[in-house]
Amino acid sequence: MWASACLVLIPAMFVGENTLVPALARATGIHVSARFTGGEVISAEERPGYKTLIHRPVFDGLFGKRSTGFIQVDFVRTAAFPPEFEQAVSYDENGTHSFTIKIKTAGGAPRAEISSKDSKVIGLGMLADGASKLLLRVNIRR
Amino acid sequence: MELSAAKSALFTLPMLLVTAFMLSAGKPPSGFEHWLSFAVVLAFFNTCFFMMLRSGKTDRWRTPVFIALSLSFVFTFIAHMLEVRGTMALKDSVMLEGGAPFCHVVIPQTLIPLLVSRTVIFPGTITGGYAAIGAMLFLWIGFSLALGRGWCGWGCFFGGLDDMFSRLRAASVINRINPKWTDISVAVLIVTALASAASLSPEYCKWLCPYKAVTEFPAVQNLTTLIQMVIFAALFLALVIALPLLTKKRTQCGLFCPFGAFQSLANRINPFEMRVDTQNCVKCGACITACPVFAMTEESLAAGETRLNCIKCGKCADVCPQQAVYHHVKMTENRPSLAQRLMFLFPAFIFLTTITGGMLLQAVRRIVHFAGTGSFC
Asked: B224 Cβ partners below 8 Å, 6+ apart?
């Protein structure tokens, strides 16, 4: 019986793939880990030439929160980036924990500097230059 | 189990219709290049299936399609990467934007976080995009239920590479390999699954996957990425080229691949298996020598079955001088049967050709285009 069902199952899988996969993904609630997506965007800001998207702090572990994590900030090109610009990021409700990102885009690959008086801010974790945006991760402690 | 030409043609007819539908996606091809590639691929698939039935040799006629799958995969994957990214190197920005293609080898590494928190620890997308996670998980679940570890013989787009290299020499140089070495792949599975769960990152892909050498790899930016590249290249040369040439075995698939080890478990829950007719078997050991993944041993032969890691390629049945090895549906009478062989071959070959079809069509189309214009794009 099961062997006979396989004759139908395999072709049906390919035919129904485009419809069933999104439905199953919604039904099961599976999603890509925030360690890769950067987590949900909690604030957005329009500036001349670009838009800033600030993601939530990511401390996600397998069972709970980790002691260290990161905040991802995306600078999305809407025109050309200014040669130099700054972005202040506060990542808690009362503004206690914050840092400032300084980006230089002039003369070659973009460079970033992080400044903060907050001991929970560890420093720059990653800077990646994508097709449509600059993606930056700042490592932080919980 | 040879069939007459008429019977073989009769049984090939449904395959012809299914493959024509799958290859064309229900629409007639448009333009000369599309028609030509469609006709070539359709004829190739159905000639192989016809010959599989006519000659009774499963593995002999599975192999050309399986190798074509891997070669066309590598060709089209690299072409796609070069067109989209301009390089085979995987940049940080692509990973952060969820642009990494997902493959089945990642699945065992992602399962613990997936079960614990429904999160996939891979920089891809669930739906949409190139090689999305949802589509691969869906196909894997369906295939595993239907054909178990047959994936490694009928669906893996990497496996054809070491299968190809394992067939290039007429005789092996290294003849005796203890099947216990297959436990290495179980160890790799356990270590990489636990390490991936702990780090929330697919560690096998980051450090140990030999196929990175011919697909995509991290852009070399520092000592760590340089070491990763060296490991990928060394493992590819050793496990996919050198050892298959020397042993005539699929050493990457049989001894190292954590997905293969994991997929062996799926052999428990699917209806098909290879059986040995112990009354007819003369214990010549031809099947043990031929098995590419060490799934046949003297003990398993005496018990009339294969080990759990059997990939159902049918090579053991092809080489058996007594025709004592056969495809079998579990919980049915233990004897060779055409109906049972067909019940396995139809879903397995449809899966193989559907996975292969799109990539092979694209590869043939690019080659036809190149012949006409001097450009692959």
From this structure: none
Kindly give the pairing relationship between strand B119-120 and strand A31-32. parallel
- In Å, how far is B293's CA from the nearest CA of chain A? 24
Using the CB atoms, write b or e for A67-103: b if 16+ within 10 Å: eebbbbbbbeeeeebeeebebebebeeeeebebebeb
Question: What does the pLDDT average to over A134-140?
Answer: 95
* Across B81-90, B257-266, B321-330, least confident range: B81-90
Smallest CA–CA distance from B155 into chain A, residue? A10
Q: In sequence order, which residues have a C-beta less than 8 Å from that of residue B373 and are 6 or more positions away? A: none
Q: To which H or E segment does residue A76 belong?
A: strand A65-77
- Reply yes or no on whether the pLDDT at B377 is more than 70: no
Assess contact for B300 and B306: CB atoms under 8 A.
yes
Q: Mutate one of B16, B19, B91, B97 to test the A interface: name it (highest A CB count within 10 A).
A: B97
- Which tens digit of pLDDT belongs to each residue from B126-147? 998 788 999 999 999 999 999 9
Residue B192 is encoded by which pair of tokens?
Answer: 């990489």
Q: Which residues of B touch A131 (CB under 8 A)?
A: 93, 97
B97 close to A (CB below 8 A): yes
The answer, for A62 touching chain B at a CB cutoff of 8 Å, is yes
A25 in contact with chain B, both atoms CB, cutoff 8 A? yes
Complete edge-to-edge strand list for the sheet that includes strand A98-104:
A84-90, A98-104, A111-115
β-pair partners for A77? A50
ipTM, 2 dp: 0.90
Q: Does B106 touch chain A (CB under 8 A)?
A: no
CA angle (B326 as vertex; B325, B329 as ends), nearest 5:
140
Q: What residues 50-69 of chain B have any CB closer than 8 A to a CB of chain A? A: none
Is residue B129 less than 8 Å (CB to CB) from chain A? no
Q: Residue with structure tokens 């419809």?
A: A19
Contact residues on chain A for B145, CB-CB shorter than 8 A: 6, 9
- Assess A19–B contact: CB distance below 8 Å, yes or no: no
What does the pLDDT look like over B73-119, one tens digit per residue? 999 999 888 888 888 888 888 888 888 999 999 999 999 999 999 99
Place of tokens 């590598």: B74
| Mean pLDDT on B243-272 | 96
Give the pLDDT confidence score for residue B87 in this predicted structure: 87
**Residue of B18, B118, B145 lying closest to A31 (CB–CB):** B118
pLDDT tens digits along B271-302? 999 999 999 999 999 999 999 999 999 999 99
Q: Which of the two residues, B131 and B42, has the higher pLDDT score? A: B42
pLDDT above 90 for B372:
no
pLDDT of B376 over the 90 cut = no
B96 and A129 within 8 Å at the Cβ level: the answer is no
> How far, rounded to the nearest angstrom, does the alpha carbon of residue A11 sit from its chain's CA centroid?
37
CB contact under 8 A, A33 and B120: yes
Residue B43: what are its φ and ψ, rounded to 5°? -65, -40
